[in-house]
Amino acid sequence: MTLDRWKFAYGWALILFVALFTAAKEKENEHEGQKVDSGSFGVFMGGHRVGTETFSIYQSQNGSVIESEFKTEGSAAPAATQNSEMRLSGSGEIRRYEWREVSPGKSQLTIVPTDQFLTQKWTTGPQEKEGEQPYLLPPSTTILDDYFFVHREVLVWKFLGMACKQEKGQVQCPVKQRVKFATLNPHQHSSAPGTMEALGREKVTVKGTEQDLIKLALTTDSGTWYLWVDDHDQFKLMRISIEGENTEVMRD
After folding, report:
1. Residue 132 falls within a domain, yes or no?
2. How many Å apart are CA 58 and CA 66, to the nearest integer?
3. Which residues form the domain of 73?
């Protein structure tokens, strides 16, 4: 497996780290490009499944598209459903981000670059009340929205491309090496600096099988998330654990 097939520069002219994908170029959901990852994440609290995120990531010469849908599960109330679409340029900068609440309410927001910075617009409620908020953030900012864990996978790839290298067919990530990112949480209408660092390798049981995975720590103002990545399977994000909370996210 090589690091040279799926490259695109992210902010600060650094190259995204991605595995060699062998799937043929296809056209799905109006995307012309290669589907480089798809699947679902289960969200568990206290061992009980409370939600599912279903996602797809496409990449072409023009950039990337990350689509996701999140649904709650396991409650007496009607399921809450949200979806998002993030479009990145070939250099990894934000071209457009859209989020919609499908049920039980109706609201939506968009983020687009305006004059080298980002602007968020939204409508909420049955009367479609509108709002707008500018951010002094460049398009290279990383979006980490609530409920969309695939955004963390995109950040993982960005980190690997900046901090790690391949030696003798294996990925080498210097332990405790930190990389800083500017992050934006559209739901919270907030931005914050974030850091990611490699913590070495760890054996983790996923889907009943013990796997040797790369462990990373993502720290923002909201706390620390631990992430485990499979460098033997296209650098997929396999598991997330949130420090201090009884919450886990597992790839199905």
Report:
1. yes
2. 6
3. 9-251
Residue 37 placed within a domain: yes
Counting Cβ atoms within 10 Å, is residue 14 exposed (0-12), middle (13-18) or buried (19+)?
middle
Q: From residue 120, give the alpha-carbon distance in Å to each of 76, 82, 97, 111, 191.
A: 33, 18, 9, 4, 12
Cis before 134 (ω within 30): no
Is 230 within the bounds of a domain? yes
Number of domains into which the chain is organized: 1
- For 241, half-sphere exposure in the C-beta direction (CA atoms, 13 angstrom radius) is 13
70, 57 contact by CB (below 8 A): no
pTM above 0.90, yes or no: no
Residue 4 placed within a domain: no
Q: Which of 184, 6, 19, 14 is nearest to 91 (CA)?
A: 14
**Phi and psi of 163, rounded to 5°?**
-110, -15
pLDDT tens for 52-96 read 999 999 999 889 999 999 999 987 677 899 999 999 998 889 999
Taking CA atoms, 148 is separated from 24, 187, 244, in Å, by 27, 11, 20
